Amino acid sequence: AKQKGRNNYQVYTPAIGDKALERMVLENNLYKALQRAEFLLHYQPQLDINTGKIVGMEALIRWQSVEKGLIRPDQFIPVAEETGLIFQIGEWVLRTACEQNKLWQQAGLPPIRVAVNLSARQFQQQDLVKTIAKVLHETGLKPEYLEIEITESIAIQDVDFTIAVLHTLRSMGIHISMDDFGIGYSSLWSLKRFPLDKLKIDRLFIHDFISHPKDAAIITAIVDLGHALNLKLIAEGVETAEQLKFLRSINCDGIQGYFFSPPVTAQAATEILNNQTKT
Ligand code: C2E
Ligand code: CA
Ligand code: CA
Ligand code: CA
């Protein structure tokens, strides 16, 4: 009675919707993209607000697809996270960013940090610390020149394990930065529990603080709170001179955004760094 024909099977299978099909195609293409080396990193400068010097570069992934051109991370990172491909992609990002930073140092440029985004899913990986240590060893980059950007979403994983991992990374000399700060569910709780070096104020607050007076108060409070906890503050999404002026007036430490530069190719980032040393 268990012997059912192939044709019967199909009756119990829900029809594959367009969305699901699209996802399967994307998943398959992401896998191929890894093998065909279709990913690349763009870099966006992070500046010291007082000296105007570049102190870091954030690595941001792009997918150069043969069919669809340059694809932004929001369109494929979530699928990579769901499927687990993020582990391989994440390691590739880490290695490429560390290699690039090492190249900049070997070219004689003033040393800066390279900031790499890690997704929450990567913190479920038992060997995350090992992987990072291996990449640093292989690329020869000193840990103090690596910064890791996390978001509050790591709090929904095994929190104690995550905190232990962060402590280990920090004890190695790696900097830890809390990305998109202020928009999570439990910002203050995160501040209490996570070992951190820096807060990145979400660009949502920076974006229209001029038309929303509340935002200015919130940004000021975040900066003061961060400083009271011995953290550095960087504002992301800084697009105007007015925003910069305000951030300087409240003693924010760093800025990142289109006002200075959008994310650019490794080659263009190298030129920006070269030009800076000339002036
Ligand atoms: P994020 O980490 O918050 O990165 C900042 C995003 O803001 C970037 O978008 C950047 O291009 C954009 N941005 C920078 N300056 C400005 C500005 O002045 N104005 C505005 N409106 N936007 C600005 P992007 O590159 O599309 O990245 C989107 C998100 O994808 C990132 O947000 C990050 O969460 C994720 N992501 C990027 N690369 C990686 C990666 O290698 N691994 C993981 N796990 N996630 C990544
Ligand atoms: Ca980031
Ligand atoms: Ca951010
Ligand atoms: Ca974000």
TrEMBL record:
Record domain EAL: where: 23-277
Name used for this protein in its record: EAL domain-containing protein
Organism, scientific name: Floridaenema aerugineum BLCC-F46
